[in-house]
Specification:
disordered C terminus, two-stranded antiparallel sheet
C-alpha cells in the first residue's frame, strides 16, 4: 500500500492544521504516526524500532527515528500561506517567504529532534 501512496505526491496544503490525521502518517499505509515517550520515538509504521546514527549536530550517536506531530504548527503549510509566499514580486523575496514560511513550518510541525540519543 505504501508504494501506491508514494506514486502520488503528498500535498501538505490539504492536511494543513491536521497533519496527525493525514494518510501519510498512517501506521499501516504511511510512514507511521507521532512519536511517544521522552524521546518521541516513532512507535509504528516502517520506521518503528529503527536506530539511526545522526546527530546531535554534526556528531553521530545512535537514536531512534523520532517525530512529534503538532497540528497547530502544520496550519502554517496551508494553501493561503503558500499562495502568499509565491506571490512575491521577486524570486529572492519569494524564496525567502517560501523557506521561512510554509517550508520551515512544515519541518517544525513534525518537530524532528536529532539530539535524543538512545
Amino acid at each position: 500500500m505504501l508504494l501506491i501512496f508514494i506514486k502520488r505526491y503528498w500535498d501538505e496544503t490539504r492536511d494543513a492544521g491536521k497533519f496527525s490525521a493525514s494518510p501519510i502518517f498512517d501506521p499501516a499505509t504511511g510512514f507511521g504516526g507521532s512519536g511517544v515517550g521522552a524521546q518521541s520515538c516513532v512507535p509504528n509504521g516502517p520506521f518503528a524500532n529503527l536506530t539511526v546514527n545522526i546527530g546531535p549536530g554534526f556528531t553521530s550517536a545512535p537514536r531512534c527515528v523520532n517525530r512529534k506531530i503538532t497540528d497547530f504548527l502544520s496550519g502554517g503549510c496551508g494553501a493561503t500561506q503558500v499562495t502568499a509566499a509565491i506571490a512575491k514580486d521577486t524570486y529572492a523575496t519569494a524564496l525567502d517567504a517560501i523557506y521561512s514560511g510554509p517550508h520551515l513550518t512544515g519541518h517544525m510541525a513534525l518537530s524532528m529532534m536529532v539530539s535524543s540519543a538512545l
